């Protein structure tokens, strides 16, 4: 039985052993993360708060209406001396007054501060949307990286399965050769040591694989003990273009858009500061009812009801030159916001260029390591056949075996690194498929 047939058998056995497990696709993983991830939920709730805050009432554009009622009562011992000398005394004299009504206050003009405040509330909502998108891109990117890391580890486990089987066959062959006197005890011991080494590597790889599964379950915010398997292969999009990515970064990157929104907020805050140079006009109105009763006095009871209204204005004439200072500070903060946009754009484009170069290198390595794997596999097939008939030494067989597994690991890692570069490029450009 040659090596190719053995590989097919182990792939078949691997499929049977995992047939009862959930097959988690990358699409389902991303969907689960978007629905369950704690940080995404928190950012979504923050956006809901920002959305609820966008209202004319929050901006101070609408009047405030208040209803009030006041009921005062007293029981007193009174003694009065009137202007004609008459003395009047009364014990347990009762007095009460009841006032109730509705009043409205409305700021009619405040230097357009309320309108700038309303626009700022809208920009806060836009900022929340950009922040939510950034959180989603970050968390989905983390999920994708962990997922494809599992695919790579799964491929390495398959390679180790194959090499362990071959190592077991080598031990069995060495023992048979030793029994008939065609091999020394040293050959058997070397074969057993190499098998133990392969099994140790397998245990370590299984441990890493299990821990990475737990990490992915944590990122998906689901039961950490859920077992699953991932797809068997990594596919890399090799068509990404640097000029297109640069355009998308400038337009779509949520971090850069957040800086632009921050600049707009600084402009609106400066408008609110300048509004203090204008007068504030307000109006008040209301309707009140009143009633009072007194056991002693010239007026023993009274009732009133009626409508009241009025207008007012205020203007800050001097506040220690704080108005000028506040405006200068606002202008400096606006300049800082403009600098932050330029800095963020340069950082993102720099990261994009370096990541794209890594992406191109990894794509070229996929082809190179794929060829190396094919060569190493062919070499191992020939070496296995020669070893069975005893025309090559043990060390040459082991070298071919290690060369093949290392080639498979490098090929798998090259695809993973290329996929990692692709994910980062799409994150930077705001074009990660969600």
From TrEMBL:
GO terms for cellular component: cell outer membrane; efflux pump complex. Its main location: membrane. One of its GO terms (molecular function) is porin activity. The keyword Membrane applies. Residues 1-20 form the signal peptide. Keywords: Cell outer membrane, Membrane, Signal, Transmembrane, Transmembrane beta strand, Transport. InterPro entries: OMP_efflux (IPR003423), TolC-like (IPR051906). The keyword Transcription regulation does not apply. It is found in: Cell outer membrane. SUPFAM superfamilies: Outer membrane efflux proteins (OEP). Belongs to the outer membrane factor (OMF) (TC 1.B.17) family. This is Outer membrane protein TolC. The lineage of its organism: Bacteria, Pseudomonadati, Bacteroidota, Flavobacteriia, Flavobacteriales.
